[in-house]
Amino acid sequence: MAAFVVLLWTIGTFAMLWSQAAMWWERSDLARDRAALSSRQAQVDAYKRSVSEIAHDIEQRQEALEQVLQRVDLRVAPEGVEGAAAGGTGNGPAAASGKPLSSVSPETARMQALLERQRALETSLAAAAQARLARVEKAIRSFGLNPATLGRMPRGQGGPFVPAARSFDFAPELRDLAVLLTRLNALETTLAAIPSGRPTTAPMQTSSYGYRRDPFNGMLAFHAGIDFRGPHGQAILAAAPGKISHVGVQHGYGNTIEIDHGKGLMTRYAHLSGYDVKVGQTIGRGQKIGRMGSTGRSTGSHLHFEVRVNGAAVNPRPFLEARQDVLEVQQTAKRRVHDRSDRG
Length: 344
Fold this sequence. Notes:
The protein is α+β, with helices and mostly antiparallel strands. It has eight helices and 13 strands. The chain is rod-shaped and about 155 Å long.
């Protein structure tokens, strides 16, 4: 009887232990399943974060690039832009992530490839802008002017500081491109304002810029402009677009018109017989502003024409004898300035 009781106790104990072991294994399997599910969820979350970060970077760069391109017209793509934009830099999406191509998802690879194309486009745009800036600076120098000095002219800006919602800090190359295009716009505006049109159709220059014998007393004197002899009443034309800043009599000059072209540039038209404009009026290049005469300190009917930079007289001859290639660069700058003005 005792042996039977012991047997039953042994069987019961074994059954209980077996049940506990089975429960432990079930719980262990459940824990492993939960861990595997958690790991897979972590991988999915990490993938989503990676895709989201790349998409956010692309969106930021695209927004910044659009803001930059609003400042300048680069509709004519430089050689190689389309190929670079379509083919990337040659390193491909793997280079952008630092991972082999097989380790990134198709979605991530496509976004990384798009980001590489954006970077290639930015590089090409910077090269195109730099080439255009070099042509503009060369054209300005051909007039005897310093583009660095003109580019730093004060422009009457101001207002409270309101930080931008986004900055270019995440993409220094975009910030550099924005600075480059800002300077290009400023110098194109300057080039467009430089007087290069003849102030009258009269072909003869009776007196040049520089030192000469005074026509009244024969003493050595400085002549701050160029004289054009012509018939009384001949049309006087604006040498560049600008705003009429003075209409009236000046000592020695007689009836005088002055045009402010911006960027410190001013032209003066003297000894006139009459005016066709008034102060504050905006005029275009080649527009009639007055009539030739012999008022003031003058020996006969002629136009005295001056070009002044920051108030100082400079030789007008380079402005009147600009080469055709320089005039073409200037004309292109004028069209771009006009287009930017129309876009607001």
